[in-house]
Amino acid sequence: MNIGVFFRKNGPLLFTIGAGVTLVGAVVTAFRAGFVVAADTVFLIADKDEITEKAEARKKENNPAYNERLDEELKKDIFDINCKHVVRWVKECLLPLGLTGASLFCMYKGQKLNTKALAAMGAGYAALQKKGGLIESKVKQYIGQYKEEEFEEDVAQDWITGYPLPEDGAIMDTGNGNDLFFDSFSERYFLSSLKEVEQAIDLAKSDLNRGGKRYGLVLNDWYRNYLGIKTIGLGGFGGYFFFDKEKFDKVKIVPTACPDRSVSPYCYVINYPEGAVDTIYDRKD
Known about the structure:
By secondary structure, the chain is α/β, with parallel strands linked by helices. It folds into two domains: 3-129; 161-279, no CATH class. Helices cover 60% and strands 11% of the residues. It has seven helices and eight strands. It has helices at 3-58, 64-130, 133-136, 148-160, 194-210, 219-227, 245-248, and strands at 172-173, 179-183, 188-192, 217-218, 240-242, 252-257, 266-271, 277-279. The strands form two sheets. It has a five-stranded mixed β-sheet. It has a three-stranded antiparallel β-sheet with strand order 4-5-8. Strand 2 and strand 3 (188-192) form a beta hairpin. The longest helix is centred in the middle third of the chain and has 67 residues, at 64-130.
């Protein structure tokens, strides 16, 4: 489990629970601290009265200097007693104050994460509204910013599969299926099936990696014998080749937006890495 993703998804809930627990703790400890301070105040008053009575009893009528010294000692004793009780009160109040601070921090962080989540959801909904009715039908299934890639691929699949073949012949038909593909090198559309094209790529990779194709794979052989579509000019021997086996291994099929949105909003695009298609004149080895 990815801890970061889990925390981003459940952070507001965790901070809300933390705020509730610490707030309850703060209330309970505050009541306890209040009781302790009140009781201690009673003892403080009793202690001060006791030492005051003892000091008054020790005073002498005809010795003002002695009585003044007793008053100074009494003031010092009362100050010491006050300090001891104040320290005790502060200690009792530290825990509820700390829990209150922790509760406020959890509330703040939870609200901040919640605001971010709501902003992300709002932006996501705005984008979905622009994509039209087809995307709206899938909103409930794929709510959340962490489903964006999966959501886009699923919407693309709905447009790609079962594409009707136009009568004007602008899109080539291999007879292997009705999934819409776009070849990024020749910039042509054709109908096939994802399974057939994946098998064609795997077979071409196998032929190149076996070493039997010492001079590479002729581009038109790739179109005619593997994909089952029409050849192009300069695609024959002496024209374009696939020379680099490692680069051809990186050929990918990506469900994405069509380069020409008038054909279809989405299609499978066959992406070739840079330098995968070359000419015999540019070959270095």
